[in-house]
Specification:
Layout (H helix, E strand, L loop, with lengths): L9 H8 L1 E3 L8 H9 L3 E4 L7 H14 L4 E4 L20 H7 L2 H17 L4 E2 L24 H16 L4 E7 L20 H6 L2 H9 L4 E4 L17 H11 L5 E3 L6 H4 L4 H11 L4 E3 L6 H17 L4 H24 L12 H5 L1 H9 L1 E4 L11 E5 L16 H7 L4 E5 L4 H9 L4 E5 L6 H13 L4 E4 L11 E4 L5 H11 L3
Parallel strand pairs: 1-8, 2-3, 3-4, 4-5, 5-6, 6-7, 10-11, 10-12, 12-13, 13-14
Antiparallel strand pairs: 9-14
Length: 504
């Protein structure tokens, strides 16, 4: 597309203001700083942008030197989806673990401490929490990112998470509206469809979002899903019926509406990101998230120019674009005032001490761990062999983040060895690698992976004393001499499991 915008007029500034692009590198590229000067109001961060808390703080300071009210967003759910600790694993368990404990004060405290750490690094918008209900156990993209399968449980923990995060001065972005839980397709790859009728949606999917709105969530993220009961023609992100009719008018939500990543195939593969962005803003979205995979100046300019052209052609109302841009700027203003009001120390909800709050993630992980078989198990005292049956990671989680129990067991039982296995020979290969050592097998969503269940059969038939650690949704019957459900694969969940295995 030929560049048609000057970079200084109001229309162009509004078009830039509604974009939330990513970028590559651990410092801000010159093009990004230039666009911030021209009206860009938000930036999205991913694991590729983060090396350490000090580096992240320097990066956000660099952004604010160009625009002091910039929204710096991140996809930091804790648990399996972490960007702050992408290369070491999260210090906080994810939603499924918090739902398993079902203590809303704990959820609020965890979210507050996570928010405090984000704020300390200069991040002021978190694309979290996930308010999706895990109603489909075969869901390939939500799973442990959900608080659970019960609507009321998910609702109360979503509300607690929003309150905890925002009490630290970081805006919550509750996702994925109107609910991504009842899908068997990952919207990173294709367009999922939910065929539930309206009464089911009202009593299930929408319940946590109502709770989030009541709790004051400052942002809501749309889902790239087709829900025919709401709109038979367009996915939620592009549907005026869903974003304006349902979310704005029926549910009474008045905050920022952010799209999920527009480069995801559910949109990019069907509408294209330029057309999709125009349709999303027209439908009622206020901010276009793009940059998980597309992270360059050319993408920003293509989207800016597509929005400007749509206004000039009459396809997109100028007032709608201006309203969207105003909502982005209003959220930026809220984060500035909220950050000033947030307590500077590490005390969180309930007035917990500094040490207790800093360890709140491990406390939560320990509470979430469930011994589902082998309650009278004798601890492992000699270095075992840890066999990780490793599925392909979904894109939201990524494959950079380590998971399992091997690293933590190695600290408790020096000499522990490990290997990763997949496919039809996984069980036999793991047995051969383990030799005479005691086997600890780590799995993730056994119920979704037939090869993993077969490998587990092979291991348990040959070695009945095998310890099984399920770090996904514990849907399959517990097996093994000891079976542990951690309800997530965060680093602290692995530590909690290692403590039980080694009797520590």
């Amino acid at each position: 597309m030929t560049t048609i915008a000057s970079g200084t007029d109001t229309l162009t500034r509004d078009a830039l203001a509604v974009l939330q692009p990513g970028f590559t590198g651990i410092s801000a590229p010159s093009w990004l700083l230039r666009r911030l000067g021209e009206g860009l109001a938000s930036v999205g961060l991913f694991g590729r942008n983060i090396a350490s808390p000090a580096q992240l703080a320097a990066l956000t300071a660099q952004l604010r030197a160009e625009r002091d009210d910039v929204l710096v967003a991140i996809d930091e759910e804790g648990g399996d989806v972490t960007r702050l600790e992408v290369r070491m694993g999260s210090s906080f368990p994810g939603n499924h673990a918090l739902g398993a404990v079902d203590d809303v004060r704990l959820t609020e405290a965890v979210a507050h401490e996570l928010g405090r750490r984000l704020a300390a690094c200069g991040v002021n918008l978190n694309w979290a929490p996930s308010a999706d209900i895990n109603s489909n156990p075969d869901n390939p993209v939500i799973g442990v990112r959900s608080f659970g399968a019960d609507a009321a449980l998910v609702a109360r923990h979503t509300a607690a998470y929003v309150s905890g995060l925002q009490s630290a001065g970081v805006a919550a972005c509750t996702k994925h509206f109107p609910g991504h839980g009842d899908t068997a397709v990952d919207s990173h790859h294709a367009l999922p469809r939910i065929d539930a009728d309206l009464s089911v949606l009202e009593s299930r999917e929408l319940v946590p979002f109502r709770a989030a709105i009541e709790s004051g969530t400052r942002a809501v993220m749309s889902a790239h899903i087709l829900v025919p009961a709401l709109d038979p023609d367009r996915p939620a992100t592009l549907s005026r019926r869903v974003l304006t009719g349902l979310l704005r008018e029926e549910l009474g939500y008045d905050g920022l509406i952010v799209t999920d990543g527009m480069e995801m195939q559910a949109i990019a593969g069907t509408y294209g990101i330029e057309r999709g962005s125009v349709l999303a803003i027209s439908a009622g979205a206020d901010a276009i998230c793009v940059g998980g995979g597309l992270a360059d100046d050319a993408t920003v300019l293509r989207l800016r120019d597509a929005l400007v052209a749509a206004v000039r052609s009459g396809e997109l109302a100028e007032e709608r674009l201006a309203d969207a841009a105003a909502r982005v700027r209003a959220l930026a203003a809220w984060t500035a005032s909220a950050n000033e009001r947030a307590p500077a120390g590490t005390s969180g909800p309930g007035g917990s001490s500094s040490d207790a709050v800093s360890d709140i993630g491990l406390v939560a992980a320990r509470r979430a761990l469930t011994v589902t078989r082998g309650a009278h198990f004798a601890p492992v005292t000699e270095a075992p062999y840890v066999a990780a049956l490793t599925p392909v990671a979904n894109i939201a989680v990524g494959d950079e983040t380590p998971w399992g129990v091997a690293a933590e067991l190695c600290r408790l039982l020096p000499g522990t060895e490990t290997g990763s296995f997949a496919g039809e020979r996984a069980g036999a290969d793991a047995l051969a690698a383990a030799g005479s050592r005691r086997v600890v097998v780590v799995v993730r969503d056994v119920h979704r992976h037939p090869w993993m269940a077969e490998a587990l059969d092979t291991l348990l038939a040959a070695r009945p004393d095998t310890v099984v650690v399920e770090m996904g949704v514990p849907q399959s019957p517990p097996r093994g001499a000891l079976h542990i459900a951690t309800h997530g694969a965060a680093r602290v969940c692995g530590l909690a499991a290692a403590e039980v295995i080694a009797g520590a």
